[in-house]
């Protein structure tokens, strides 16, 4: 029934299997990729015709993680997979970026790529498997895909590169790198690193490329068995005459426009030239007009590229290595915890940092279960930043991707949770954009964290590099403009500290770049990053030592695990009381780590003292502040150290005779007490009379010591136990009326009302 074709490859210590012919047979191409026990199904469908008037390539990639693949039910109210999560969005982009450039120019048929995680083993990240499955499905579908591509993840630990490391190995190492490549050249790079050198990073990319070639071989083998017939499409270019006419009409206008260094002036000049073309062909048929508009864009590209490649002349007059003027400010906004305004040329970002407590962490419900992130970076790109009218609302895929790139650049330099127990949110609002707003976010975000007092290890700067490639000739551009990005061949973004690279991302529009180009781009980026870092230092050279007055303070204390239940109390009664009384927020974990937070230092100190009073042991001879909580005939019970009670006997209230405890104290009164004794049952005897109630200083005890009592003699045999209440009471009779109550002082030594009950005496 099924004509199943499979290929297998031993790769990185596991078996990679690609299968087709069993599942999703109505799709143009469908591949089930298995690596370890992680399984991804990718299906490709393509429209057989192009919509009328369409002049772009509508490729859509969807990546979805099924919770059932990990044996989980989705959290939240709706128990099913819903809108794309951040990870699913980023993985969709990860597949789209290297695939899109490998379709021929002029191919406008709509293509849909859907990759779904069907099984997840908890070790093998599905993104690489999904990328490989997508490449294989496209290769066997028959669409004009100039692949296949392979992909690999690389880690770096103890000087060794690791192929497809587990998540634990990535966390322990210094690198998390994903590379997609054809057999001859690298197509896409995405990474987070812990300050790797340029040589180490380049070595990782080369290592990943070599391993990717093995996957490409397996995909070709599968295609030889199962590929469908290639589509018969006509992409011949018969527009040479039309292109020549357009060049004659507006060629000089475009060349003059691109000599304008101001973006607005340049845009106006270009729009005027484009309007000439539309007016010239207004009476032509729709197809001719659409072709003329496309050829105008192509002419713009050729003029810009030729000027850069042949003459070294960039749009704004800079050299190929020159960075635009930079202005950086911190403390830009008065009420935020940290803020910065970073401007580079016509690209500008307002970045703010907000510090929060543990309950502000981002909860992530994924295949590995619930996890929490203490560092968030959110990027916004409003339409006014490029002088346009457009949609303003929820972030799209581009915003999510740019934010994650900046997150990867800054995450490696953050302090540990133990050293800085705050949740950190960086917000980047792009207010102007003309090239590399994501790198402006890195620079501005770093400055805002430093302004907020986040003790980062070293400042991070970022730069975007471009490429003009014609045959064997190429030019690498530092700090590219928006037009150089659109009309060039590469977007190569590098971020890092003076010690090394923290993030590298590369996207290209041609069929790959070589090791030589990457080497030059990395070297040129290093110089640019150093220059930008110097400009950032003029605004703020290191993190502030004090937090903003508006930021919450967090103090951490460690208690013994056996005391956790005492701090929490039955049903959380004690910890709720601490929070209610002090106003501070208190979090405690299973290891006994307590975090006390508040914007008011006094509230933190009050909660801290309360907790310490619960967990600490009282010391004999030490003076404490306390509160009277109960008054009895023979004294008053005082709460001290937050969670301990002791008795101040009436004889220990004053040096002179006290008739009644209420003559000296009242409930709720604040008093100062000294611990006299703690018996073997934990009962505490306190004294007020030996402490100055105003200053808290200990007073000299002028009362003569009490003479010791005579020891009691042998009581002999006390006979049988007392009879039950409803029985004979040993001569006392059943009458409960025992006669008049004896005076309290009767039978006491000297009739002293201050005499201490025997049950409060020590065993001595």
From TrEMBL:
Mg(2+) binds at residues 485, 491. The keyword Magnesium applies. Residues 621-689 form the S1 motif domain. It comes from Caenibius tardaugens NBRC 16725. GO terms for biological process: mRNA catabolic process; RNA processing. Residues 689-764 are annotated as: Disordered. Involved in mRNA degradation. Catalyzes the phosphorolysis of single-stranded polyribonucleotides processively in the 3'- to 5'-direction. The gene is pnp. Coiled coil: none annotated. Belongs to the polyribonucleotide nucleotidyltransferase family. It is an enzyme of class 2 (transferase). GO terms for molecular function: 3'-5'-RNA exonuclease activity; magnesium ion binding; polyribonucleotide nucleotidyltransferase activity; RNA binding. The keyword Zinc does not apply. It comes from the Bacteria. Its main location: cytoplasm. SUPFAM superfamilies: Eukaryotic type KH-domain (KH-domain type I) (SSF54791), Nucleic acid-binding proteins (SSF50249), Polynucleotide phosphorylase/guanosine pentaphosphate synthase (PNPase/GPSI), domain 3 (SSF46915), Ribonuclease PH domain 2-like (SSF55666), Ribosomal protein S5 domain 2-like (SSF54211). Keywords: Cytoplasm, Magnesium, Metal-binding, Nucleotidyltransferase, RNA-binding, Transferase. Residues 701-752 have a biased composition (Basic and acidic residues). Its EC number is 2.7.7.8. Its cofactor is Mg(2+). This is Polyribonucleotide nucleotidyltransferase. It is found in: Cytoplasm. It catalyses: RNA(n+1) + phosphate = RNA(n) + a ribonucleoside 5'-diphosphate. GO terms for cellular component: cytosol. CDD domains: KH-I_PNPase, RNase_PH_PNPase_1, RNase_PH_PNPase_2, S1_PNPase.
């Amino acid at each position: 029934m099924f004509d199943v074709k499979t290929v297998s490859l031993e790769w990185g210590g596991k078996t990679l299997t690609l299968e087709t012919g069993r599942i999703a047979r109505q799709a143009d191409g469908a591949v089930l990729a298995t690596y370890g026990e992680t399984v991804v199904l990718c299906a490709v469908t393509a429209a057989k015709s192009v919509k009328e008037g369409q002049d772009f390539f509508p490729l859509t990639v969807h990546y979805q993680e099924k919770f059932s693949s990990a044996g989980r039910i989705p959290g939240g109210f709706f128990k099913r997979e819903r809108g794309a999560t951040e990870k699913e969005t980023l993985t969709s982009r990860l597949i789209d970026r290297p695939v899109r450039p490998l379709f021929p120019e002029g191919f406008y048929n709509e293509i849909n790529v859907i990759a779904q995680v069907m099984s997840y083993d908890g070790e093998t990240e599905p993104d690489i498997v999904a990328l490989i499955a997508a490449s294989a499905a496209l290769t066997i579908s028959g669409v004009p895909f100039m692949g296949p591509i392979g992909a690999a993840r690389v880690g770096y630990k103890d000087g060794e590169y690791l192929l497809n490391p587990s998540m634990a190995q990535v966390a322990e190492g210094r690198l998390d790198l994903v590379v997609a490549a054809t057999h001859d050249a690298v197509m896409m790079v995405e990474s987070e690193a812990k300050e790797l050198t340029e040589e180490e990073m380049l070595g990782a990319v080369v290592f990943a490329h070599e391993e990717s070639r093995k996957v490409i071989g397996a995909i070709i083998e599968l295609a030889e068995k199962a590929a469908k017939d290639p589509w018969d499409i006509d992409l011949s270019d018969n527009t040479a005459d039309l292109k020549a006419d357009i060049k004659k009409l507006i060629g000089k206008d475009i060349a003059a426009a691109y000599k304008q260094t101001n973006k607005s002036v340049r845009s106006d000049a270009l729009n005027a030239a484009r309007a000439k073309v539309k007016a010239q062909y207004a009476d032509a048929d729709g197809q001719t007009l659409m072709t003329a508009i496309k050829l105008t864009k192509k002419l713009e590209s050729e003029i810009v590229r030729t000027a850069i490649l042949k003459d070294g002349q960039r749009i704004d007059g800079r050299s190929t290595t020159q960075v635009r003027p930079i202005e950086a400010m911190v403390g830009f906004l008065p009420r935020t915890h940290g803020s910065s305004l970073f401007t580079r040329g016509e690209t500008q970002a307002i970045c703010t940092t907000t510090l929060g407590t543990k309950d502000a962490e981002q909860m992530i419900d994924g295949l590995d279960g619930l996890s929490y992130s203490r560092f968030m970076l959110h990027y916004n790109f409003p339409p006014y930043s490029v002088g346009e009218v457009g949609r303003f609302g929820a972030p799209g895929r581009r915003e999510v991707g740019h934010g994650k790139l900046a997150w990867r650049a800054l995450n490696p330099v953050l302090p540990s949770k133990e050293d800085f127990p705050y949740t950190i949110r960086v917000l980047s609002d792009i207010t102007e954009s003309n090239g590399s707003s994501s790198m402006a976010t890195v620079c501005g975000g770093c400055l805002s964290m430093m302004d907020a007092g986040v003790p980062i290890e070293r400042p991070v700067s970022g730069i975007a590099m471009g490429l003009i490639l014609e045959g064997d000739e190429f030019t690498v551009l530092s700090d590219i403009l928006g037009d150089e990005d659109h009309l060039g061949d590469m977007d190569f973004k590098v971020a890092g500290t003076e010690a090394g690279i923290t993030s590298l991302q590369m996207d290209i529009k041609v069929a790959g770049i070589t090791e030589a180009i990457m080497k030059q781009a990395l070297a040129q980026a290093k110089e640019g990053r150093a220059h930008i870092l110097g400009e950032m230092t003029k605004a703020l050279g290191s993190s502030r030592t004090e937090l903003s007055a508006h930021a919450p303070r967090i103090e951490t204390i460690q208690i013994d695990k056996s005391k956790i239940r005492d701090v929490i109390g039955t049903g959380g009664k004690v910890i709720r009381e601490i929070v209610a009384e002090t106003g501070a927020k208190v979090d405690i974990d299973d290891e006994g780590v307590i975090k006390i937070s508040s914007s008011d230092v006094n509230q933190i100190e009050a909660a801290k003292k309360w907790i310490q009073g619960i967990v600490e042991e009282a010391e004999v001879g030490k003076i404490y502040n306390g509160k009277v909580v109960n008054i009895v005939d023979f004294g008053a019970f005082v709460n001290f150290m937050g969670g301990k009670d002791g008795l101040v006997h009436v004889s220990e209230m004053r040096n002179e005779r006290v008739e009644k405890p209420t003559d000296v104290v009242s409930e709720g009164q604040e008093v100062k007490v000294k611990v006299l004794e703690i018996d073997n049952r934990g009962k505490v005897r306190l004294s007020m009379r030996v402490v100055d109630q105003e200053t808290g200083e200990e007073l000299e005890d002028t009362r003569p010591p009490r003479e010791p009592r005579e020891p009691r003699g042998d009581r002999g045999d006390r006979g049988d136990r007392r009879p039950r209440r409803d029985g004979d009471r040993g001569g006392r009779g059943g009458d409960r009326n025992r006669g008049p109550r004896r005076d309290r002082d009767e039978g006491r030594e000297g009739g002293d009302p201050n005499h201490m009950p025997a049950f409060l005496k020590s065993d001595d």
